[in-house]
Amino acid sequence: MSVVDKDAAAPAAASASPAAPAAKQSPSWRLLLDAKWRWYEFAFWLCAAASFWVFPRKLMLLSEIFILGLLALSIDLVLGFAGLVTLGQGAFFGIGAYAAGLMAQAGMGAAPLSDPLLGLLVAGLVAGLVGFATSFLVLRGSDLTRLMVTLGVALIVEELIVKFKDITGGSDGLQGVLSSPVLGLWSFDLFGYTAFWYSLTVTFVIFLFCRRLIHSNYGLSLLAIKGNPLRARTIGMPVNARLVSIYTIAAAIAGVSGGLLTQTTQFASPDMAAFHRSADALLILIFGGAGYLYGGLLGAVAFRVMQDFLGNITPQYWLFYVGLVLVLLVLFVRGGIIGLMMAMRDKISPRDDKDAGGRQ
Amino acid sequence: MLRRDLLKGAATAAIAIAAGLPATVALAQQQTVKVGFIGALTGPQAASGRQMANAIRLYQQLNGDTVAGKKIEVIFRDDTGVADQTRRIAQELIVNEKVAFLAGFSLTPLALAVAPVITQAKTPAIIMTAGTSVITERSPYFARVSFTLPQQTMPMAEWAAKNGIKTVVTLVSDYGPGLDSEKAFFEKFTELGGKVVAQLKAPLANPDFAPFLQRAADAKPDAIFLFVPGPTAGPLMRQVVDRGLTKGGIKIIGPGDITEDEQLVSMDDSVVGTITSHFYSVLHDSPLNKKFVAEYKKANNGARPNFIGVGGWDGMHAIYEALKKTNGDTNGDKLMAALKGLEWESPRGKMSIDANTRDVVQDVYIRRVERKDGELYNVEFDVVRQVKDPYHK
Amino acid sequence: MLTILFDGVAYGMLLFILAVGLCVTLGLMNFVNLAHGAFAMAGGYLTVIMMNRMGISFWWCLPAAFIFSALLGAFLERTLYRRLYDKSHLDQVLFSIGLIFMSMAAVDYFMGATQQIVNLPPYLTGRIEIFGAQVGVYRLFVIAVCGVLAIGLQFIIARTRFGSQLRASVDDGRVARGLGIDVTRIFSLTFAVGSGLAGLGGALGASILSMDPFFPLKYMIYFLIVIAVGGATTITGPFFASLLLGIADVGGKYFVPVIGGFIIYTIMVAVLIFRPEGLFTRGKRR
Fold first, then answer.
1. Which of A46, B253, B273, C37 is an S-S bond match for C216, by CB 3.0 to 4.6 Å?
2. Which positions in chain B touch A264 (Cβ < 8 Å)?
3. Is the model more confident about A354 or about A98?
């Protein structure tokens, strides 16, 4: 992980020059400034909601994008803010998916067991628990080590799902996942109306939580750890405890997103924990730009829309163009889509205090 | 059911209803009938998706695209072999494109994932590849034109028991279809007095079969029964031969997936003598098949069709015939009624869709791999007529 | 029993031959080149075309695969890779995944999605008996190639002038440049060799694993495991790691087939818990 621009937490227009780091001001001052909602954030969520009316034919795709974005957001917490790379978020996604699926299955589509919100809660709890248990594996080693350990955990989870076929349905997947109506009012329909609003709302609520978390003292301490773990430790920060806790939180969020997918698609299958799930989510996050909270969501939108668009044009060779876009993006832009946006903004209205740019 | 959901949906979003929904109902009668094809066109399962898609295009090319006065339009979509994509695409095709049929489905979990959708929407789905027995039981709107593994496997067990094979080791991939065929073989073979001395299961992601093959060889059976999914079959057969198992007098038997026609071209003589039971061989002797194979090769750079391609062809045929019967009516229940009991001549021979189980009934051939005119083929030498899936009640 | 041990060694060497090119690019040059599998695929497909379509001897295919992939690697290094040396690892991941996607679609376009099987010449197939163990001739051949490669590469890196220049360039490019080492050329050459080795691995592995457009992703996990367990800074590390993984995997699957799918992952996680930098590193933190 590169060690650049640790002090700039968000597009802060403040006059915090590199020579005068945050230490000079009081932390709460920075927090207040960063935590302020900006116009483009409102615009983003309004667009998300408005997409319901703009793309009524793509509601299932949109819900899937929110779910994927939520998964990428969970990686952003560990990667973008705490500096831990992970290639195993699919493990928690899969665990959450199966937890929610088994709950719904046990309830046979009737409340209380099949209640979707309860299902999500359980999904988050179970995934968080497993996340906590495995968090100790990522405390040591280099990036490559972390990538491989988390990947290993995900692969083992996938194998376990396949092996315990009496419970999970094995490689055929979990069938008969019927959720009761959301809040007892809205059942999941064929057109994806409920799925859309349900996924969007859950994603938004969790996003709010993450935003609050990041703009707290806790969030600042994560950034400090990401910047220089050794220094953070020396000034008395409980580095390991912080890493364990953020990893657990991220796992729980990944579990919730997995639960969402199961509930909106009415089934779960082992590939929900598969390598490509973790890799896609990581890819999407870097594609969008890590370390801004919005990178995962934007990346999910851009990536899936691009995939869907190209897939409709050339169902056999769309992968080529996706690859081309990735290569070009890395070559010419820093920090993914958000990096691109910032570069463009700087072009239009140059500022003296350069913003963070890519913060990966 | 659907209706109530619509109302709930309406409660969620009145404006969208005003914009889009009434049109849904009104558009049911139109001049184009759409068929939504969902298959893996990229990713590890791409080869199977391509076979189906090629055969579907070929069928339309040779038989025209108009049935009962309506134009048949096939929409090809790629699910990359990932179940939640299959499910989403199915939903989009039903809701947006108002397809009358879904078709394709490369793998069992992909087919199972759409079961709730098609049941809710009452849209028939034609299974062109996936082969686990249970699929058709999961929704009354499934109809299968491919095969089921027990259906393919039991004749193999019978043949083995009758032809002096006393002991067998089974080696299958550890997933639905593999376990299905292992179970079917075990039951039939032991029922007929044979002995299965070891049942080995290899993980799905497994590049090297050495330990399993060694175990099989250690048991010194008369034959080894193999089943692995298509893309693994080539390397596995290569390793079987490399290990000298065939030279020690051990027969290699299994369902026809392991010597699938398209792949067989690139194998070498070491697979000669492998005995398989399956419903289709490119060498099947019938005028229709000769025409099918010739046209397929012409359209696809000389590549052979295989059993998956035939599934695509017959799926299209079933769709055409069903529409003829309903005279172009795309009501899901009427189409399902038309599909049930449908009988026709396929490149594979005579086949039908069982009126009760909606599953395929067909001849299963026993074949031996031989070299003919410089190429390897599965040569049919015995047949069991009109086999049904043994596990459907 | 001996046969199982031999099979384990052979499987390990198969892993090694697939991963050795990555040792060079990731280990020596510190570039997260996930597109390694794409170079292997290039070598594998070249072998398929040369042998199955043009009927050229297997012996010519191996050097051809090496040279072809090396040239491809050199070309891409000049045009693209070079610009990414100073970018973050994540950028490198994104970039190389993009390359993988493109290579997969391109191969699919030109060669089709069907699997291609390489049929070996008859004298490399079959088995011979050594110390009472049945030994596959081709596997023996792969083991021999791997042994030579491992020793040769280790020698080059540790003992030759080029090797020390390379290590200097990786450790501190600026200082190396200041000392008059042509860092740019060294990196180009090393990258080409790494790509060539990948191509050679693809060519050798093609007949056991067979080729399809999905190859770079299908086996990516395996070469990453080898590098992670072995530690990326040496050639001998991944070599012994491959041996360990191969023997454990084959042995495990033979004696306890039920847990077959877990073995290789479990070993990896276990090793990384106790030796986060890999089994055989010399404590250099990257």
1. C37
2. none
3. A98
Closest-approach residue (CA) in chain B for A176: B116
Q: Where are the domains of chain C?
A: 14-214
**Residue A346 located in a structural domain:** no
What is the pTM assigned to this prediction? 0.83
How would residue A29 be classed by pLDDT, with cut points 50, 70 and 90?
low
Nearest to A130 by CA among A166, A91, A171: A91
Residues of chain A with C-beta less than 8 angstroms from the C-beta of C283: none
Which of A64, A187, A312 is nearest residue B88 as measured by Cβ atoms?
A: A64
B375: which strand partners? B372
Residue B21, pLDDT > 50, answer: no
Query: For an interface test with B, which of A155, A178, A265 has the most B Cβ atoms less than 10 Å from its Cβ?
Result: A265
Query: Distance, in angstroms, between A116 CA and closest chain C CA?
Result: 33
Chain B residue closest to C264 (CA)?
B206
Residue A208 lies in a domain: yes
pLDDT band at C282 (very low <50, low <70, confident <90, very high): low
The SS3 of residue B33 is strand
CA atoms of C86 and C90, how far apart (whole Å):
11
Q: Which residues of chain C make contact with B215, given a CB cutoff of 8 A?
A: 254, 257
Q: Give contacts of C5 with chain B, Cβ < 8 Å.
A: none
Q: Could you report the per-residue pLDDT of C111-143, keeping only the tens digit for each? A: 887 788 887 887 777 777 777 777 888 888 889
Instruction: Tell me phi and psi for residue B171, to 5 degrees.
Output: -135, 115
On whether ipTM exceeds 0.90, the answer is: no
Q: Which two tokens stand for residue B335?
A: 């189409």
Secondary-structure class of domain B150-278+364-387 per CATH: alpha beta
Beta-carbon count within 10 A of B199 CB: 17
Q: Do C208 and B208 touch (CB under 8 A)?
A: yes
Note whether B31-147+288-358 and B150-278+364-387 share their fold.
yes
Q: What is the pLDDT of residue C18?
A: 86
B5 touches chain C (CB under 8 A): no
A293 to A61, A79, B63, B238, C63: CA distances (angstroms): 21, 11, 54, 50, 49
Using a CB–CB cutoff of 8 Å, tell me whether A321 touches chain B: no
Q: Which of A60, A52, A176 is nearest to B93 (CA)?
A: A60
State whether A315 and B41 contact (CB < 8 Å): yes
Residue A60: domain span: 24-273
Domain boundaries defined on chain B: 31-147+288-358, 150-278+364-387
The count of other CB atoms within 10 Å of the CB of residue B63 is: 14
B239 close contact with C: CB closer than 8 A: yes
Q: Mean pLDDT across the stretch A23-42?
A: 65
Report yes or no on A71 lying in a domain.
yes
Nearest residue of A to residue B50, measured between CA atoms: A316
Q: Are A286 and A299 in contact (CB under 8 A)?
A: yes
Least confident of A9-13, A232-236, C233-237: A9-13
Interchain contact C105–A (C-beta under 8 A): yes
When divided into structural domains, chain A yields a total of 1
CATH code of the region B31-147+288-358: 3.40.50.2300
Alpha helices (runs of H) in B44-175, residue ranges in sequence order: 46-63, 83-95, 108-121, 149-162
Of C95, C105, C278, the CB nearest to A319: C105
